[in-house]
Structure of MerR family transcriptional regulator:
Amino acid sequence: MQISELSDRSGLTVQTIKFYIREGLLPKGAAASATRSDYDERHLERLRLIRALREVGDIPVASIKKIIASVDDESVGMRELFGTTQYALGPHVDAPDDPHWRAAREDVDALIRELGWQVSPEAPARELLAQTFVALRRLGFPITLVELRPYMKAAMSVAEHEIGGIADDAPRSRTVHSMLVSTVLYEQVLTALHRLAQEDVSARRFGD
Amino acid sequence: MQISELSDRSGLTVQTIKFYIREGLLPKGAAASATRSDYDERHLERLRLIRALREVGDIPVASIKKIIASVDDESVGMRELFGTTQYALGPHVDAPDDPHWRAAREDVDALIRELGWQVSPEAPARELLAQTFVALRRLGFPITLVELRPYMKAAMSVAEHEIGGIADDAPRSRTVHSMLVSTVLYEQVLTALHRLAQEDVSARRFGD
């Protein structure tokens, strides 16, 4: 297809598509003539992914570039690819160098060890969790395994569903695509449903 | 206690505390002399809540003001108070007036009706969920009850734990405090644990 059709079907302007090609996020089309390039479904699929990451995940172009480079490099193993993706996605919490923060970070590391979860020491989600531990403690809310268990159970059951749903023979780009979508989009689905469920449970408990 | 001690214990500067008093987020202290006011534990608890909402939830001061006004107004029923809180917290998604968006919003409304959840038509989480439906559909991911069920189950079990954990005789401010904390802070705990669980499940599945 021509770039105009690619633009129509992806919902992105020709200018934006050309920008992504220049930035290396999208491969060039095949040369169809001296002035025209030809694009296929893979271009479309990649553009849709980029659009979702930009619009829903608010992921910077530079981070999307890193993710796509790892997807295209077949020598990068799946586990490393997953780490690169998660790290690029962020969020990157600025950990201040204070004792409360260090204590919270140690609690997070101890929790992950205790659970036996295989998580890289650099995973940004460790800092994200430490940030909430600092805030919860400041508010006087206890952080205990008992208090965290419902959240761990919910998180694990959702993750098992997501990773389990990836077919063994799925192409590499599709697997990453699924991981990205479940991280960025289904994370937001979970947040929205959590708020809706809170309102429902609260309405049933407190009435009008 | 004097304002200097309140500052030490809350971790907020005297200037910030005075700003919150001027903005009506924090009641004035009791006059202890012509130039000195006296503050108590309720001031401290409120400041800790404001700090967590600002720093972790990134909630604007104007929204915090609305929430606190409803907490202080005993004539506002618990259910209405919950709605005010959720609405003030946002996020407020700008819904464009296009057919994809309208279709997604209708799907969200149908889903909530089908589940029998009691949720206000104005709940911002409806727009948040519609936003992800638009993006998922654009990426070619199916949105079916079967696909959503693991997320609904996880969200509901967490919400039941949260609302169920509020004591019947808890003071009004403490109840709201708990709802806010579970919405803003434990939502982030859930997100962080979801990412950690994804990494663990993916490591076990894909190895090194």
About this structure: Chain A is about 70% helix and 0% strand.
